[in-house]
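Hey all, quick one. A colleague (J.T.) asked me to put the NAP job into the tracker so the inputs and the C-alpha cells live in one place instead of scattered across chat threads. No bug as far as I know, just bookkeeping. Sequence used:
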Amino acid sequence: MAAVLEAKLLIDGRWVDGGPPVEVRNKYSGEVIGTLPAARREDVDAAVAAAARAAAVMAEMPAHRRSEILSRTAALIRERRDEFARTIAAEAGKALKYARAEVDRGIMTFTIAAEEARRLHGETVPLDAVPAGEGYFGFWIRRPVGVVAAISPFNFPLNLVAHKVAPALAAGNTVVLKPATATPLTAVNLCRALAEAGLPGGAINLIVGPGSTVGEWLVTHPQVAKVTFTGSPAVGERIMSIAGIKKVTLELGNTSPVIIAPDADLDFVAKRCAVGAYYNSGQVCISVQRIYSERKVYEPFTERFVQASRAMVVGDPLDERVDVGPMIDVREAERIEGWVQEAMAGGARVLTGGKRDGAVYWPTVLSEVKPEMKVVAQETFAPVASVIATDDFEDALRQADATEYGLQAAVFTRDISRIFQAVRRLNFGGVIINDTPVFRADHMPYGGMRRSGIGREGVRYAMEEMTNIQMVVIRLAD
Ligand code: NAP
C-alpha cells in the first residue's frame, strides 16, 4: 500500500490546517491515498486576503522574473514527472500512459507561459485619426486584474490547473486555486513546485472543499477580480449568476461530433476515434461522442470502429498496458449505464461494450440512436460513442451542428471545398480537420461557443482575459 499524503491548505505561503479532513481515494482500488482539511469560510477569506496583499508584489515583479519562476516550475515538474503521473493515475483513474502525456502537456503549458510573460504588451493608438484626437498621443497597456479565483475539474488535475495558474502568474496576478475535491493531490504537488521555484508567498493559495460551499465563497468574494472556471455547464451557469461584477471565463462541456466523408482513410479514422472516445474513460470535454458517416462508408467504418473499441485494454490505470481505467466514481458509471439502457429501450443497439463493473464502464459503441436520446443530446462524459448514418455531407453538417454546445468538432475529408463548407457551417470554437475533436495544442485558442462557455484559454488568450486594458492619453505640449 502506498504512503498516504497528508497535505494541508496553502495560505499566504504557509501550509495550514482547516476544517474536517477530506479523503482522496485511488479511483481503481478505493484505498485512501491522501487527506486534506476542507477549507472553512475563514480559510477562504484568509486565502483571498493573502492573494490581495501579494497582488501588488506580483504586479511590480519584472516580466523576466515571472518568466524565470514559470520556467523553473516547468523544470521541477519535469524532474518529478513520474511522481506527478502516478498521482494523476491514482487520484483521477487515468491510464498511466495518458497521465504521463498530461504531465508533458503541463510542462509545455508552464513553458509557454514563461515565454508569454516576456511579451505581454499593448499598442499605440493613432488618436489623430479623428479631429478630436489631434495633438494627443495614445497608447494602451495591459494591467493584471489582481486576484484570480481558479476552479478546476477532476479530469485533468494538472494541465487544466496549469491553464489557469500559469497564465494568471505570467500576467502578474495572484491566484486562489480550488481544485476538484476528487483530485486535489496533483494541485498540492504543483503548489509545492511553484513555491520551490521562488514564487512569493500569497501569490498562489490552495483551498479545497465542496464547490457548493467553498467554491461559492470564493466566487462571490468581493476581492476576487476574475473567476476562471472549467467544469460542467450547470455549475458554470450558477457561477455566472452569483459572481457579481467580475471577469468570468467558463470552459464547459460538449457533445463532440465527428464527420466522416467517403474519401477518408477509414482504418486511420476508426483507430483515432477509438482513442478519442475512450481516452480517460471518455471523461474529456472534447471526447468523441457522435460519429456521423455518410451511408456509403457507414458499414465499413462501423466494423473497423467496433474492432478498435474491442481492442482497448480495460483495467488498473497504474498498469502500463491499460488504455481505459475506471470512471471517477461508481455513481458516474451507474449514470452512463442508465443512459445506455434508456437508449436501448428506445431502439438503440449496443455493438460492443455496455458492461459495468463498479466504477469501470467498458468502451461502448451504440447504433440506431435518435437525436433526442440522452446519449446524443447531452454530454455523455463516459466511454460511449454513437455511430450515425447520414444521407450526405450536408446532412452530416446539419446534424453535427444541431446541439446546444459548441466546443470542438472534427471532419475527416481530403476535399478542400468540403473543408471550407464545414468551417462555415459548424458553430464550434475549434474545427479539427483530419483528426478527432480531442486535438489540442496548449498554445492555441481554446474555448466554446453557445453553452460550451465564454472566453478562451491557451495561455496568451487566457492572459488577455486575466488583464485589463488601460488606456493612456497624453496631450502634447505646444
Ligand atoms: P463540476 O462538477 O462542474 O466541477 C468543477 C469544479 O467546480 C470542481 O472544483 C467543483 O468542486 C466546483 N464546483 C462545483 N459546484 C460549484 C459551485 N456551485 N460554485 C463553485 N464551484 C463549484 O465538473 P466536473 O465533474 O469536475 O468536470 C466535468 C465537466 O467539466 C464536464 O462537463 C466537462 O465537459 C467539463 N470540462 C470542460 C473543459 C473545457 O475546457 N471546456 C475541460 C474539462 C472538463 P467539487 O469537486 O467540490 O464538486
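Adding what we noticed when we looked at it: The radius of gyration is 23 Å. The longest strand covers residues 136-144.
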